[in-house]
Input
Amino acid sequence: MKTLLLSSFLIITLFTTNIVWADLPPSTSLGVTALQTVYSNKASDGTTVVFGEVQNNLNSPVNTVTIGVTFMDDNSNQIEYKTGTTLLQVIPPGGKAPFMISSTKADPSITQIQVKIAGFQSSSEKQQVLVISSGSIQISDKLLLSGNITNNGAQMSTNTKIYLISYDAFQRIVAIGISDPISVNSGKDSQFSITSDLSTRAKSYMIIAESDNYQSKLIPVNGIQATLPVIVSNTMLTDPNGTSYSTIPVNASVKITSDAKYLVNATQSFIYYVQVKQFSGKAEFIGKYEGVFLGPGDQSVSVNWIPHSVGSYFVETYVWSYDAVPLSSAVPSINVVLVK
Output
C-alpha cells in the first residue's frame, strides 16, 4: 500500500478552550487509523503539550503515522502548526500507539488546539516477543518504574525503548515516560528504569516496549508505591505567642502548627485539616487552614483550638485537595495531649 493521502482518512478535529479536553467521536464508518481521545495542558516551561492515542482499525500494520497539531488563540487564529508521529514506529492491527507533541513556543495565548491525522503507510509487522516484568511504580515528585525486559526473539533487540503511559479516570493519556534505549540479546533479559513527570490526574498506568525489530504487548502496571506529594512534619501545640505547652489549661487558646513540604513543581490549592480526638476515638475538634502551594517548598500552616474538657487527646493532621483527594498521609505526630 502506498502512502495514503489526507482525503483517504477519517479526520477528527478537536477544539478545546483553555486547554481543556473533549471526547472525540469513535470511528464507525471507515476501517482506517483514527484519533482517540486527546488531552492537552501547559508544561512547566510554558509550552503546550498534546497527548493522545492513534488506533489502527485496519487488518494490517501501519507505520509513519503523521499527526498535525494546530495551536490557536481564543479567536481560533493559528499561532503555530506542528507535526509529529506516534511513539511506536509500527501499530499492529487493532492496536494503539501513544503520541506526545509540544508547541515550540511558550505562548500563553495558546488556548485551543486542532488535531488531525495527516498520513500513514502500510508496514510489515513487528513480532511481539519482548516480555516486560515490572516492579511497582514509586510516586513522589516524579514517577519511577524499574523492571526487566526479556527478548524471546531470534535476533538481538536493538534500540529498545520502554514507554510508561499515565491515564486519567477518562482513559486520556496525561503523561508519558520513556526509558533510555538498550539492546537485549536473543534469549536474554535486561534491567530498565523509567522516570516520568507526575500528573495528579493519573489513575492507571500501562507499559509497552518497542525496538528496531520487535515489540511487546501493552500491559498494565498494577503495583503502586505512592509517596504523596505533601509531607507534614513538626506539628506543635503552643499558646498564641508560640510558647509550647506541657499541659494545656481548659479553655486556653491553642495554636496547632505544622510544616507542610510540597514536592511537585506545580500550583496546588490545599486544605490543612487538624483533628483532635479523645483516646476513645471520639472526635473532639476539627479545624482547617486553606492555602496554595506555588511550587516545591515549605509552608507553615496552623489552626486554633480551645479545649473545653479535661482529658487526654491525640492530634492527627491531613492535607487534602479541594476535590477531597489526599495530598499527604494522616500524621498522628502528637500522641498525647493533656488538658487540665
Summary: The first strand starts at residue 34 and ends at 35.
